[in-house]
Specification:
Nuclear Transport Factor 2, Chain: A, DUF4440, about 150 residues, seven-stranded mixed sheet, 3 helices, 7 strands, alpha/beta
């Protein structure tokens, strides 16, 4: 009998809901990789808030976030961002959830390879049976970069 892979994500509260959030996060990561603005939009509530991990400006609203992603994708064609959850906790009424984890970003510019990473916190809300991102806060813990090979 084959064992299924054990998730490294700590799931608390409503486990099926937490697994659905983990799947939504995986879908969001895939949307970033594919540069699919439609798929990114599908995961965000209209009034979503994103607090970047460094000196960048607060991004409020789905349209503003999509505009920011569009600009990032066009200015940095090799950019990649990945959020890796370590804990997802669903509240008692299964309408809100908290996700924490690590994030990584990488891109090149002017012959330099740039790498950022840190911690993040995400607030999820169940909207008509679908888990949507309502807010994300990022803290940049490490920055590195050097001449690209």
């Amino acid at each position: 009998m084959r064992k299924s892979a054990k998730s490294d994500i700590q799931l608390l509260g409503d486990k099926p809901a937490a697994r659905a959030i983990a799947a939504a996060r995986a879908g969001f990561n895939a949307a970033l990789e594919a540069r699919s603005l439609k798929a990114i939009a599908d995961v965000l509530v209209e009034e979503v808030v994103l607090i970047p991990g460094d000196e960048a400006q607060l991004i409020t609203g789905r349209d503003a976030q999509l505009e920011a992603w569009s600009s990032i994708f066009s200015q940095m064609p090799d950019v990649s961002y990945v959020r890796t959850p370590s804990r997802i906790e669903v509240c008692e009424d299964s309408q809100l959830a908290a996700e924490t984890g690590r994030w990584k970003g990488a891109w090149s510019t002017d012959g330099f390879a740039i790498r950022y990473s840190g911690r993040y916190f995400a607030k999820w809300r169940c909207v008509e049976g679908q888990w949507k991102l309502e807010a994300e806060t990022f803290v940049t813990m490490k920055r590195s970069g050097g001449r690209a090979a």
